[in-house]
Design brief:
heterotrimer; A mainly alpha; B mainly alpha; C mainly alpha; A: mainly alpha; 4 helices; 88% helix; C: mainly alpha; Helix Hairpins; 3 helices
Chain lengths: 104, 163, 89
C-alpha cells in the first residue's frame, strides 16, 4: 500500500480512538447527567466517524474501485447522535420534574 | 406544482446516493436498481411523508455544511479539553434561545447542529413559544452563546430554507 | 505502522468501553445507564470497524451497520418508555 495512505489511515485510527476514549472519560468523570451527555454525543461520534473514514480509505486503497458503504454508517451515526442525545435529555428532565413533584 | 414523475426530488437523490453507498456502487445493475427504488419509493410514501420546506439556496447550503464540519472539529477539541480539565472550572447552564424561524423541519436541523457543535446539546424545541432549550457544558456568558447560535446557525438556516 | 495503530486503537477503545461499563454499573439514574449503553454500542461499532481493517475483510461492516441501527432504535425506545410509560403512542 502507498505509505502516504497508510500514514493517513493509521493517524485517523489513532485520533479517532483517542476521541472515542475522551468521550467515555467525559461520561465517566463529569458531575451530573447533563454534563455527561456532552462527551458521548460529540467526541465519541466524531471519533468513531474518523475510524469509519479510515476503514473507507483503507478498503479503497486495498481493492479496485471505491469503498463507499462506510460513509453510510458515518452519516447514520452523525444523524442519529443528536436525536439520541435530545431524547435522553428530555427523559432525564422529565424524571427530574417528576421527582421534584413527588418531593412536594 | 408537484412533479408527477418525481414528487420529491431531494428524497429521490438521497435514496439513490444511499443505495449507491450501501452497495459500494459495485455494478451497473446495482445502480439501476437504486435508480428504480429512487423513482418508486417517493410515490409509495407520498401519502404520509411530512412536507419539508423548499431548499431556497442550495449553494449556501453546501457552504454551510462545510462550515458545520469545521465547527464540529473545533467543538470536539473544546469538549475534549474541558473533559480532561478540572471539573470545578466548568460553568454548565441551561440556556433558552428564542427562535425567529417558524418551521418544524428547520428547527430540527438547527437542534441537531446545535447538538453537534461547540459545547451545547439541544434539549427541547418549544413549538408554542418557539424557544430552543439548550444545555451548555461551559457557558460563563449565556447571552453571548445565544447571540452566537442565532448569528452562526439560525440566520443561515433561515436563508437556506426561506422561512 | 498500520498494525501498531490498530493495536493502539484496540487498547484505547477497550479502555473507553471499560469506562462505559463502570458508568453502566454505577448509574446513578436510569438515564445515565441508557447513555452508557448507547456509548458502549458506538464503541463496539468502532471495535468492529477495527477488526475489519485488521482482518482486511468487509464482512464486519454489515455487523457494524446492524449494530448502529439496533443501538439507535433501542435508545429511542428506552427513552420513549421513560417519557410516556408506553413505547407506541
Amino acid at each position: 500500500m502507498n505509505p502516504f495512505i497508510e500514514f493517513v489511515v493509521a493517524s485517523l485510527i489513532v485520533v479517532g480512538a483517542l476521541f472515542a476514549l475522551l468521550g467515555s472519560v467525559g461520561l465517566a468523570r463529569l458531575p451530573d447527567f447533563f454534563t455527561r451527555l456532552h462527551g458521548p454525543t460529540k467526541a465519541t461520534t466524531l471519533g468513531v466517524g474518523a475510524m469509519v473514514l479510515a476503514s473507507a480509505l483503507y478498503f479503497t486503497a486495498m481493492r479496485d474501485g471505491v469503498s463507499l458503504h462506510e460513509i453510510a454508517v458515518m452519516m447514520f451515526l452523525f444523524i442519529t447522535a443528536p436525536v439520541s442525545a435530545h431524547l435522553l435529555a428530555k427523559a432525564a428532565l422529565h424524571r427530574q420534574r417528576r421527582e421534584a413533584d413527588k418531593a412536594q | 406544482m408537484k412533479h408527477r414523475l418525481l414528487p420529491r426530488p431531494a428524497l429521490s437523490v438521497t435514496l439513490f446516493l444511499l443505495w449507491a453507498a450501501l452497495s459500494n456502487a459495485a455494478s451497473a445493475g446495482m445502480l439501476l436498481l437504486g435508480a428504480l427504488l429512487a423513482l418508486l419509493l417517493p410515490h409509495i410514501v407520498s401519502s404520509f411523508w411530512p412536507d419539508a420546506p423548499r431548499l431556497a439556496r442550495p449553494s449556501l447550503a453546501i457552504r454551510f455544511a462545510g462550515r458545520i464540519a469545521w465547527d464540529m472539529l473545533l467543538a470536539n477539541w473544546a469538549v475534549a479539553r474541558r473533559v480532561v480539565g478540572p471539573v470545578s472550572a466548568l460553568h454548565p447552564a441551561f440556556v433558552e434561545v428564542p427562535l425567529d424561524l417558524r418551521d418544524p423541519f428547520a428547527a430540527t436541523v438547527l437542534g441537531s447542529i446545535v447538538s453537534l457543535t461547540p459545547g451545547t446539546v439541544s434539549i427541547d424545541v418549544d413549538r408554542e413559544r418557539w424557544v430552543l432549550q439548550v444545555h451548555a457544558l461551559d457557558a460563563p456568558d449565556p447571552d453571548a452563546l445565544i447571540r452566537q447560535i442565532k448569528q452562526h446557525y439560525e440566520t443561515p438556516i433561515r436563508e437556506i430554507f426561506a422561512c | 505502522m498500520l498494525n501498531f495503530a490498530i493495536e493502539l486503537g484496540f487498547v484505547l477503545i477497550a479502555l473507553a468501553m471499560l469506562l462505559n461499563l463502570w458508568r453502566l454499573v454505577k448509574g446513578p439514574d436510569i438515564t445515565d445507564r441508557i447513555l452508557a449503553l448507547d456509548t458502549l454500542n458506538i464503541n463496539a461499532i468502532a471495535l468492529l470497524v477495527l477488526f475489519g481493517i485488521r482482518a482486511a475483510s468487509t464482512a464486519y461492516f454489515e455487523a457494524a451497520l446492524i449494530l448502529a441501527a439496533m443501538g439507535f432504535v433501542a435508545t429511542v425506545v428506552l427513552c420513549k418508555y421513560l417519557l410516556r410509560g408506553d413505547i407506541i403512542e
